[in-house]
């Protein structure tokens, strides 16, 4: 992954050095398990634990000849040992090491992502409470519908991200599985105790059944979940972008002193963070497709998934870590313009209250169809002539015969639309 989008803690997990270190830990733990069974002398196990190491450059050098990274790795490790080297990789196949180590690395990545999600949810929740009663325009099909609050928009995001956290925890559990079951999953040359021992020490779960590999439906579900989380954040980012349009300008990403929006136009203040998040979410969705393509491996295994996973597993976790932190900061520092929100509500000349007039007439005894046929012509006239809708309502004989001036005025009070805000927030625990 590009350094530009890599946060240090997550990036450190996926370094080549750390990947080989995870492989080495699997190898050593397997030797310890054999030692517990009495198959490897305890003194040899102690020497392996104390002295086993690898050299990345040496692995690369050996791989030029072997064209097999695990073989190159085990030879490099063996070069650091004495006669006890014969026990390295004892009874194992390459994927016993690689799949189990990958799950261990994913577990580490998941701990970071879980914290990211919890922090992100907290930021949105606080911003939602801050703007609980900040009235704004609700839009459907991009057209003014009825008043809502900016806090409710954020509360919607809050609840969606809580669902995403639940999905993530489930998918993370599903991918934190190890397997040390041999060449085709039969434990022919390995005792199942070795698998159980290694997984327990790594904090992963032994797969109930496997072939030479862990089945890739686990990884597909995991990548799909990361993609869904990224897509949710993208949805939020698209909303910020839409609300930052010059003709709307209800919110704006924080614009730092000295920041530049364009090389050509000095006036520009662009939602670059939200646009950045939008683009990166697309990349993660692409990785999800690749993860699905990895599910149908041949027979008890092939290697077609391996090259893809070297990209999609590190990159997806790195990118989601970046997305959650970047957009979390955008929300935290978001500039909100309540006066612009109210001003935009007035741009449609009061048409946003048409349903209130409709329902008031129905409450007075008019049939729904008849009431609709009274209100709609006045609404269309307001659109076409750019006349305030309330004026037309007050001039309509059918309406004024049924509604008093006070009742008409009540129809045009935006506070009516906020009467259940507290109820919704209470349901969310905000």
Describe the structure.
- By secondary structure, this protein is mainly alpha-helical.
- It has three domains: 3-87, Orthogonal Bundle (Fumarase C, Chain B, domain 1), CATH 1.10.275.10; 99-177 and 213-344, Fumarase C, Chain A, domain 2, CATH 1.20.200.10; 351-411, Orthogonal Bundle (Ribonucleotide Reductase Protein R1, domain 1).
- It contains 18 helices and six strands.
- The protein has helices at 8-13, 16-37, 42-51, 56-66, 69-78, 94-130, 150-175, 192-202, 217-243, 272-293, 304-332, 338-345, 354-363, 368-385, 389-395, 397-402, 405-411, 421-428; strands at residues 135-140, 143-149, 177-178, 205-206, 251-252, 335-336.
- A two-stranded antiparallel sheet has the order 1-2. Strands 3-4 form a two-stranded parallel sheet.
- Strand 3 (177-178), helix 8 (192-202) and strand 4 form a beta-alpha-beta unit.
- Helix 2 (16-37) crosses helix 6 (94-130) and helix 13 (354-363) runs antiparallel to helix 14.
- The longest helix is centred in the first third of the chain and has 37 residues, at 94-130.
- The two termini are 37 Å apart.
- The mean pLDDT is 96.
